[in-house]
Amino acid sequence: MATAPGTRAVLKNHHASASKVREVLDLIRGKDIISARDILVYTERGSARPVLKLLASAVANAENNDSIPADELYVSACWADEGITMKRFRPRARGRAGAIRKRTSHITIVVSRMESERLVEVSRKRSADESRRTARRAARVRRSLGDEAAEAPATEVEAVEVETVEAPQVETVETPEVEVVEVEAVEVEAVEVEAPQVETVETAEVVETTEVVEAEAPATEADAGDAPEAGGEDSEGSEKN
Fold first, then answer.
1. Which of 6, 71, 142, 209 is 20–30 Å from 218 (CA)?
2. Which residues on neighbouring strands pair with residue 181, listed in sequence order?
3. Cα separation of 33 and 72, whole Å?
4. Model confidence over 129-166: pLDDT tens digits?
């Protein structure tokens, strides 16, 4: 396998076991490039996408390095070798450890030019497939439009003479030139205005005085008997005087 002729592409340390990758490689071995691409696109496997990228790399190497068109290539050989195995452990019950082996693989794809007889057969098959797809599309369109629209004859359209009308000429009007007058800026002197002085007037303090006037209570009849006669006291004083 290592000495298979053709243009190759190699993928190292792919994170998948070699047994899983071999199931995908078995689907495209010996197929032409277009068929191999279609198979890998619709394959529901985890390794299908990396293998598809590796196939595109091998085709690009053949086109650039060996000048072989992609339509004339086919997958002549493909294989997967075991790579390194990474050992991991998972804790289990009663203090034990379960071993985990993460396997890798090395994938190789070799593409070569098809023989002339096979190339003619593949080209004939592709043209037949294309014609069948075209017929299916036409049938789908007829079903969507309906049988009446599909079977209706094409109506002839009478030719209509179109008269050409010359566009009227438009006279161009010259716009008068406008003179631009420059105006000189006038300098304005700033005049300082003194603010008038305001005299401060002292306000006199006003003190309010309140006089307390004691009002004499009116004399009652009981007090009138005890009180001395006003006339007697006055007479004595007058006599002394």
1. 209
2. none
3. 8
4. 888 888 888 888 888 887 655 555 656 656 666 666 67
Hey, what are 119's tokens?
A: 């190339």
DSSP structural state of residue 104: E
Instruction: State the Cα angle at 96 between 90 and 100, rounded to 5°.
Output: 30
Residue 6 near residue 77, CB atoms below 8 Å: yes
pLDDT above 50 for 198: yes
What pLDDT does residue 120 have? 85
Q: Are residues 44 and 131 in the same domain?
A: no
109 and 120 in a single domain? The answer is no
Distance, C-alpha 68 to centroid of its chain: 42
Which structural domain range is residue 77 located in?
A: 7-90+97-113
Could you give the CA distance from residue 158 to residue 27 in angstroms, rounded to a whole number? Answer: 59
Is 75:33 a contact under the CB 8 Å cutoff? yes
3-state SS class at 201: coil
pTM of the model: 0.54
The answer to whether residues 126 and 34 touch, using CB atoms and an 8 Å cutoff, is yes
